[in-house]
Amino acid sequence: MTTLIKYLVATILVLGSAFLPAGQAGAKAQSYSATVLDAKTGEPIPFATIQLSKNRGTVTNGEGIFSIDMEDVAKLRDSVFISSMGYEEVSIYPKKATDTIIRLAEKLNELEIVFLTDNPLEPNEIVERIKENLASNYPNNYTQKKLFFRQSLYNKMNRADVDFKKSTIEELNEALIDSIVMQIPKESSYYSESIGTLSGNYNKQKLFVDKSAKLYDKSKDVSFDGFGKRLEKIFKENVKPDSYLKIKSGWFGTKVELDEVETKEAPDGDDGGVQVRVGEDPTTQDITSGVKDDINELYEQLFFQEDTKLDFLQKSNRYEFTQTGITSIGENLVYILDFEPKGGKDFSGTMYVNTDDFAIVRLDFQNVKKLYGIKLLGIGYRDILYKGTSLFAKDESSGYSLKYMELERGIEFTLDRPLTVIEKNKNVKGRRKQNELDLNLDFKTTAVTKSEFVVFDSKDLSESDYGIAKESTGVEATYLSAYDPAFWEGYTIMEPNATIQAFKVVE
């Protein structure tokens, strides 16, 4: 990415934006793949549990599809059990199975009616029991988890207007600026997938990444890069070799050397500005810390964490709870408890609560209004989407641990600011100012990030074993221009949706 466009992007980040420039179900090679459907309606069943052994398994994706790598199939000593809330459990033996469609029948249990009659708890009483048992149901123990993590980013440029004011460089005219703006992609998507081992608890983790892939259209990144390249090329051809650029946006400004990727402080006597260090392209760096940070962000938003956005338990008096029924998962009965905000609170959703120990075994939630937002000095930022699903299951320590989490976060970013690029030279007689370009930028974009976290295998870990656990280093994601199921041969992953499977860069 060129110096000028890197500066523009970095300046936006410094000023507080969160804008991120662009970045059919079938059998995976060497795997057993199937779709889980409702036997009555034929609809896919998302997030159904696929149990390989006591602490090993996966879940179906949002389209009801799952796959098991044949190496894992070969290790099976028993059947695979497939279950979902409110359905009869079924078993299959993948070594001999030929069906790619698995139908689950609705579970009819007369005990549910008896239970409701004998246990007439009010919704608020259930909520209080949930809160009383949080510490015992969700212990902050050390564990070692075999995991798969997928992140999908969707960006849309809603508005990209550049108002041309003035230019003393003939080549940098209004027509050229307009043509450069037209190159900015209106939509883009970026997908990343990683598999590895996560050691730690909810507060601190170590991650060893075994393999990682990234899937996106490089040409859409080039469109942004080309915007900077063309501007920089014209400046280089029309400024003196020892000149520098002073880039200002309202009160903010900085110096950019044409042949460097790091801004420096302005010369003595010049007005100071914001110093911006522009790093390397993150897609070529070790991805371990980035993936770990993303997983840690998911952990921080679990409903029992102190600083979570999901405050329906912490501020339960600000929510209305309604028991809409009772269902079962496996041999366990669960309350179905809906919640809605009172007044100005932010979320609605559904809790599925174990009737014995009052653990939330599944949570679905979504914001009911736009969340946090700020607008200052022509820069606007707002959280517009926050929805997700989390599943928990009993682990070795008799508590519950996270088995699957999906979180979608949508943001809206606006920028309406002047931009002035001035060529200055301290080695010429007279005034330092040589050339000037004045623009006004008016951008609006939305970005949606969907994170999916799947635990395939989990076991308890001592604190001393956590201390010696190693993190991966030097792991770079492999670039794919089209989805390739063979890339994950030898691994069991969460099946991608149809959009990802159909993704292909058009040459």
UniProtKB/TrEMBL annotation:
Residues 264-286 are annotated as: Disordered. The keyword Disulfide bond does not apply. Residues 1-22 form the signal peptide. InterPro entries: CarboxyPept-like_regulatory (IPR008969). It comes from the Bacteria. One of its GO terms (molecular function) is carboxypeptidase activity. Keywords: Carboxypeptidase, Hydrolase, Protease, Signal. It holds the Pfam family CarbopepD_reg_2. This is Carboxypeptidase-like regulatory domain-containing protein. It comes from Dokdonia sinensis. The lineage of its organism: Bacteria, Pseudomonadati, Bacteroidota, Flavobacteriia, Flavobacteriales.
